[in-house]
Amino acid sequence: MKTAxxxxxxxxxxxxxxxxxxxxxxxxxxxxxxxxxxxxxxxEIHVKKVKRNHIVGTxxxxxxxxxxxxxxxxxxxxxxxxxxxxxxxxxLSKEIFLKLAEAESKVHNIKIGKVHFHEVGAxxxxxxxxxxxxxxxxxxxKDVFCSYLPLGKGFVSGSHGMIPIPSPATVEIIKxxxxxxxxxxxxxxxxxxxxxxxxxxxxxxxxx
Length: 208
What we know:
By secondary structure, this protein is an alpha/beta fold. It has helices spanning 14-23, 28-35, 73-81, 87-108, 123-138, 168-173, 191-200, and strands spanning 2-6, 43-52, 55-64, 71-72, 116-117, 141-146, 149-151, 155-158, 161-164, 179-181. The protein has one domain (2-200).
């Protein structure tokens, strides 16, 4: 088995994690074939090489082609449970979504069963989360560690209007892990990225 270390110098999001796994050797065709086991439709997975400051990386873009309804945690569990994915992939994927639901429940002061995912529950986030777990298993990665997380500042437009960066849900998820502030006016850590990495790390206090 292998160990992965995420150097999150520019933040973390679901698509960034997928791109990193593809760069580590996860076959794109295999990933797409496994994602199809979720039996969801209305999306396309676009993967391309990009260059930033003369450094090449992999960009993953989930294009949602159909309007998606809001989903409860139960709805998302049903999608995962009714899929043909391996049991361990299902369980870890649901654990990540549970962390998201707990954060949303706390932020909005509602019961977890009443949480309805908006951007988080959209198909792109389902693919990000389940795709990450698929990739970890395929690459035989057992343990995951990460650096401190950098936080941006400013505001971002969401389903609840303008919210601060980092978003309240992100703050709730990362409240017990090491972070540092930057002067970058951009969302560097998304709720999905935060939920994935904090669930995957062997300890909530893994240090750089």
